[in-house]
Design goal:
alpha+beta; single chain; 6-stranded mixed beta sheet; about 450 residues; 4-stranded mixed beta sheet; about 45% helix; Reverse transcriptase domain-containing protein
Length: about 450
């Protein structure tokens, strides 16, 4: 009984780093209470802007908000042929091979047993402990998906866990919906990810570094820093545009994604299986740990689905194609035209940094590209959070920012959590990095003390 209590508490507390430490359910329950306090939703702004605290009203508002969020709007049904990189046919055929027992077993054995269970109540730890009994039916279910391309609706039911982006969040726009999927579904999508991993590098340009094997966030950060240093040098006018996408994962046009994958050379059968994974889920919203509502969606990718980062990367690749077309037609002039490859923009997940010479024509062209990209992909520019940064020699800065449709900002600014500075870094510019390092050091110190406690 004591062991069962500790296992239950550990899973709820998510204390992976203490999994082999002293048995102490008081510690686990303290962490549970801390997490519940941090993630609880005592008050919420409803659609009329009124603050409500009644649990029933909070539940109804959350279900209504996410039901509306995942509904398709005015997207285009026709897509221009701008894709230049295509999948080699032999790679496409390898995606469709039915997985063997060793592949499935490797996914299960490497899974973290302390992750929260899905809507069916079975965690990865349950599958690992009882793999001797479960391996035959699980392998059969996984292989059937790769052969038939169909998922039972029960397998793809999803809980939405609302994680606040800031302390005291009261608007649902300030919560991040992280999905909790069934482990059987995760086995399938992890296998799909492993197969896509080997082909992504050949499909995605160097402008993107996220989720691509062999590419690093550090490379993007250093390149952006070097470009920012160019702003202090004499010569032509320069501009750097930091673009923020509103609800990026949640608003992806799935029809556009599937059309794009076909244009990239993915086999129709593979695209059909991807469509089955992203279009068939049903949702319930977790409020104070209890699921509420039951609804479907017709847009968006789920944050927490192993497949979503790869698919989102493909969507952002279309933005690269649009930018390259604008550069080749000279609608947009990049900062460094004589460098190969030409660097007109950098993408890391949904962080976009556009680098261009800020002519009025170029700023309007970038605005048109973002609007066309929204119409096709569903990804909308958040103008309130986006900023344009000009070099000191740039004239008519307000007019140029107005042509783009975003506000003007001042360097330094954070990009990938590192400040972009025109001049050499000063002590105050690195306070955020120092604070982060100090917090990490304190956590490591606390962890070592706990491990030594008798």
């Amino acid at each position: 009984m004591r062991l069962q209590e500790e296992i239950s508490a550990a899973q709820r507390a998510k204390c992976i780093w203490l999994k082999d430490g002293d048995r102490c359910t008081k510690f686990f329950y303290d962490v549970i209470r801390t997490r519940q306090h941090r993630n609880s939703i005592p008050r919420l702004l409803n659609a009329e802007g009124r603050l409500v605290g009644d649990p029933m009203e909070i539940q109804e508002e959350a279900v209504r908000f996410y039901t509306d969020l995942y509904q398709q709007t005015d997207y285009s049904s026709t897509f221009p042929a701008l894709v230049t990189k295509r999948l080699v046919s032999r790679h496409g055929n390898s995606l469709l091979l039915a997985p063997v027992r060793m592949e499935v077993e490797d996914i299960v054995m490497k899974a973290n047993p302390n992750k929260a269970p899905g809507p069916d109540g079975f965690s990865s730890g349950f599958f690992k402990r009882h793999w001797g009994v479960l391996k035959v039916p699980v392998l059969a279910a996984v292989q059937e998906f790769f052969v038939e391309g169909r998922l039972l609706k029960e397998i793809n039911h999803t809980f939405l866990t609302l994680v606040p982006k800031k302390e005291g969040a009261t608007s649902l726009a300030d919560f991040r919906p992280i999905v909790c999927c069934n482990f059987l579904y995760k086995i399938i999508t992890h296998l799909m990810c492993r197969r896509m991993e080997g082909i992504m590098q050949g499909l995605v340009y160097q402008n993107q570094a996220s989720f691509i094997k062999g590419r690093s966030i550090a490379e993007h950060s250093l390149l952006a820093h070097e470009i920012a240093r160019e702003f202090s040098k004499p010569g032509r006018m320069k501009a750097c545009v930091k673009l923020d996408l509103r609800k990026a994962y949640d608003t992806v046009n799935r029809d556009f994604l599937c059309h794009l994958m076909l244009a990239m050379g993915f086999d129709e059968r593979w695209v059909a299986r991807v469509r089955e994974c992203i279009c068939s889920p049903t949702f319930s919203v977790l409020i104070q740990g209890t699921p509420h509502g039951y609804f479907r969606s017709n847009r968006g990718l789920r944050q927490g689905d192993p497949l979503s980062p790869y698919l989102f990367t493909l969507v952002m690749e279309y933005f690269t194609c649009m930018m390259d077309t604008a550069v080749h037609s000279r609608r947009i002039i990049p900062l460094f035209r004589l460098v190969s490859p030409v660097v007109s923009h950098l993408i890391y997940a949904d962080d976009l940094l556009v680098l261009l010479q800020p002519s009025m024509r170029g700023m309007r062209a970038l605005s048109d590209i973002m609007e066309e990209f929204r119409r096709l992909s569903g990804l909308q520019l958040n103008k309130k959070k986006s900023r344009v940064y000009f070099s000191s020699r740039c004239t008519q800065q307000e007019e140029r920012a107005f042509a783009l449709g975003v506000d003007r900002g001042e360097l330094p600014v954070k990009y990938l959590e590192v400040p972009l500075m025109v001049n050499y870094a000063k002590k105050q510019d690195c306070h955020s990095l120092v604070d982060f390092a100090q917090r990490s050091g304190r956590l490591a110190s606390c962890g070592s003390i706990i491990w030594r406690t008798d």
